[in-house]
């Protein structure tokens, strides 16, 4: 069987893993990449996006592969893109269309409403992709495959979920050769996961949904240090990779594993790497192990500084003092710290935002990231938002349909005020502490602009004032991507796949 994966804008570790499994089972796999120029998470300029649409070329490239199956890995933010692309590809090729990943897991019925979709995969897809391809080879997609959802006489059938894969070492390494003919490559930075799952259960996160489906027992699984080092040794040899990105939800949560990893990684790999951590994990030993093994940057989730609301709205148990301590410990070891926050949550008020501005004016992490809350299907934050009146029942269908739904009531705050605070948060990182305190005390932040300037200020701050270890890589890869596909667009050669 020949499967063609289609994916927008960036690299996908999920697709690399699925392709590796398909090839390991004797099937062929290829990739067609939709560049989505000027319409991604970094740069969104709608008029230019319409001008440089390359979807027709993408469809032509898929058709040229003559696939038996066209597979999509769909997160919620890509669902609207998927609906358009799947319909176009189905009409052109007639190939079977399957979809998986978190949006397919959380809202499978939304996919089965579409005439262009033949099957939906819930949960982990590593073993399922092989079963689907094998069944097609013998006549068609069997309707009884675990994790698979299909329509039977117009009625959705959602099959049971098979147990999570516990032995991650048994899986083939992700196949990054899929991106060989695209500007996405593993030489600048090699993305890897040493574990699957998360020990925490934040209300806004997809892990909350997954634990509802699978339960918490056996949800967090970790590869052996030897297996991780083997993959990275291959990466250095094959791709000449110069940096590593550990894409784990939280990296090195198990101390014993982290001690062994730190020793082996430093001895056998030695590349600078970036990772994510929860403030509860970070103590003197953990920070030292990260730094000694080669970690140069850590992203830590904070979300909000109001301790009561952080617990009640986000189910985050760490104290503000623990957050303050984790930032300090990491910085003292020489690790670049990026603190992540989610604004516009139910019941957030102006006083909450002032509290956060004061905290970051004091602690000064190397980069302050502020995201706007997005609701994902099946997550507990939706129930919390309904109780507080931040969402209404009509919003639920929009969320399942992949539309971006934000809070409609925000206590005493407003979206306009949020945009002003966006700039204030940046100022807490670049202005003298005393001046920031004056701006806060006299409420001068209310005079800040609310147009496009917050986004520009935030981007300039991150890329120019506080350049993180991976910022240069990100900028270079982004520039290469635009250069590559704009050239393809103007020369009329289409999209590489």
Structure write-up:
The chain has 497 residues and is of the alpha/beta class. The chain has two domains: 2-166 and 479-491, Cobalamin-binding domain (Rossmann fold, 3-Layer(aba) Sandwich), CATH 3.40.50; 190-469, tm_1862 like domain (pyruvate-formate lyase- activating enzyme), CATH 3.80.30. The protein contains 20 helices and 15 strands. It has a seven-stranded mixed sheet with strand order 2-1-3-4-5-6-7, sandwiched between helices. α14 links the parallel β14 and β15. α1 (13-24) packs across α7 (126-137) and α17 packs parallel to α19 (453-465). The longest helix is centred in the last third of the chain and has 21 residues, at 471-491. The protein is globular and about 70 Å long. The two termini are 18 Å apart.
Task: List the defining traits of the structure above.
single chain; 497 residues; alpha/beta; Rossmann fold; pyruvate-formate lyase- activating enzyme; 2 domains; seven-stranded mixed sheet; six-stranded parallel sheet; 20 helices
